[in-house]
Amino acid sequence: MAEVEVDTETGIVRVLKVVAVHDVGKALNQTQVEGQIAGGVTQGIGHALLEDLELHEGRIKNPALSSYLIPTALDVPDIEAFFVEDPECTGPFGAKGLGERAMLPTVAAIINVIDDAVGVRITSLPATPEKILEGLAEKKEVTSTNSEGRR
Questions:
Q1: Which site in 10, 76, 95, 115 is 20 to 30 Å from 137, CA atoms measured?
Q2: Is 100 a catalytic residue?
Q3: Angstrom distance (rounded) from CA 51 to CA 71
Q4: Where are the alpha helices (DSSP H) in 23-128?
Q5: pLDDT of residue 151
Q6: What is the pTM of this model?
Q7: What's residue 148's pLDDT?
Q8: Which fold has domain 2-149?
Q9: Distance separating alpha carbons of residues 147 and 23, to the nearest angstrom
């Protein structure tokens, strides 16, 4: 679950809170499991809102962190990490891998809540302010066209 704030004037999305629940098999170290979930959530925020690999003729145009943005500590919201323990018979001591798979539901949650909040469906990542403003403008154009057609 993600809670976001979308500024309709600037298109900027701010993630306020994420609640994440994952099946981890047997949690061998609860603190590390919670840390893995928080790390995956942070990666998901980056993938959903910031990380945009720019290519030109097969070459990366933004190879530095000054032009390829990733989340910083200021971008990380309140994260509530929960886990379900359902031991995996093939995993070591009943554990399951966690790592980056905690990222995937975060991306979907953020993109879906943007659509729910402002009615803009993002179909290519990241959900940049420009894409959100473009979607809002298209939505406004469709609304005004529909209202003009009803007169």
A1: 76
A2: yes
A3: 9
A4: 30-49, 104-118
A5: 42
A6: 0.88
A7: 62
A8: Aldehyde Oxidoreductase; domain 4 (3.30.365)
A9: 48
